[in-house]
């Protein structure tokens, strides 16, 4: 095949083809690279996700369990 007819390579750092092109037409190496990237950012997001504060961390002077029980009975 002539060089002018060959499809140009896809830069693995460019995510546009992932979202705009049929994955069946994209090179397997590009798809694998994108999947690896998305998996890594998902892991980073889950490991840095903040957790809700415990009742004691909110205000140690308040008896939160008593307050919650009072609100439940109303």
Short description:
The chain is mainly alpha-helical. The chain has one domain. The chain has 4 helices and no strands.
What would your notes on this structure say?
With 74 residues, this protein is mostly helical. It has one domain (3-73). Helix content is 53%, strand content 0%. It is rod-shaped and about 65 Å long. The model is unreliable at 1-6 (pLDDT under 50).
Which series of helices and strands comes N to C?
HHHH
Structural category is mainly alpha
Largest sheet: none
Alpha carbon gap, first and last residue: 79 Å
Point out poorly predicted stretches.
Answer: 1-6
Judging from the principal axes of the Cα atoms, what is the shape? rod-shaped
Radius of gyration: 26 Å
Q: Into which percent range does the helicity of residues fall? A: 40-55%
Number of strands: 0
Strand content: under 5%
Number of domains: 1
Rounded average pLDDT: 78
The helix count comes to: 4
């Amino acid at each position: 095949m002539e060089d002018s007819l060959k499809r140009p390579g896809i830069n693995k750092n460019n995510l546009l083809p992932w979202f705009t092109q049929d994955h069946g037409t994209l090179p397997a190496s590009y798809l694998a690279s994108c999947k690896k990237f998305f998996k890594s950012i998902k892991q980073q997001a889950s490991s840095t996700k903040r957790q809700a504060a415990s009742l004691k961390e909110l205000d140690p002077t308040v008896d939160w369990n008593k307050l919650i029980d009072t609100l439940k009975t109303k």
